[in-house]
């Protein structure tokens, strides 16, 4: 996984928009105006922040050294994932989808329905 493949994947998910609300260096992906993933574009090491179920977040941090509490985020609900090649890309994309699904699940039913 690299920044381009992460971006391409996020944009395949229904209703996703990309924005730069924190300046030109942090790419933010939202669904219906709610953030589900952030990634710096100027970092030497590729990484991203993704929302996660609190129990699963703790499990992932224990299992994978490249998963840390969310940098500048609520550490109970967000993980920062360092993309070093130690975790398979399909696993990383699965975590991105999990983050998206958590946000979609929290949306009002009418907004969920409009996503298909």
The topology string of helices and strands comes to HEEEEHEEHH
Query: What CATH architecture do you see?
Result: Alpha-Beta Complex
Structural class call reads alpha+beta
Terminal CA distance reads 27 Å
Tell me the CATH topology: Aspartate Aminotransferase, domain 1
- Rg estimate, integer Å: 14 Å
Tell me the number of structural domains. 1
CATH class: Alpha Beta
Report the sheet-strand fraction: 25-35%
Q: Helix share of residues?
A: 25-40%
Give the low-confidence spans.
none
How confident is the prediction overall: mean pLDDT?
93
* Helix segment tally: 4
Largest sheet: 6 strands, antiparallel
Overall 3D shape: globular
How many beta-strand elements? 6
Biggest sheet strand order reads 1-2-3-4-6-5
Oligomer: single chain
Give a written overview of the molecule:
The chain is α+β, with helices and mostly antiparallel strands and 116 residues long. The chain has a single domain, classed as Aspartate Aminotransferase, domain 1. Helix content is 38%, strand content 26%. It has helices at 3-12, 54-63, 89-106, 109-114; strands at 16-19, 26-31, 34-40, 47-51, 67-69, 78-82. The protein has a six-stranded antiparallel β-sheet, covered by helices on one side. The two termini are 27 Å apart. The mean pLDDT is 93.
């Amino acid at each position: 996984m690299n920044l381009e493949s992460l971006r391409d994947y996020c944009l395949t998910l229904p209703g996703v928009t990309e924005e730069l609300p924190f300046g030109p260096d942090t790419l933010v992906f939202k669904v219906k105006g709610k953030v589900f993933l952030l990634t710096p574009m100027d970092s030497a090491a590729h990484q991203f922040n993704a929302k996660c179920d609190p129990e699963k977040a703790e499990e992932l941090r224990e299992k994978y050294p490249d998963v840390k509490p969310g940098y500048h985020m609520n550490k109970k609900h967000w993980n920062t994932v360092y993309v070093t090649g130690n975790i398979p890309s399909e696993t990383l994309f699965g975590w991105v989808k999990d983050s998206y699904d958590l946000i979609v699940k929290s949306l009002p039913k009418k907004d969920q329905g409009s996503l298909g």
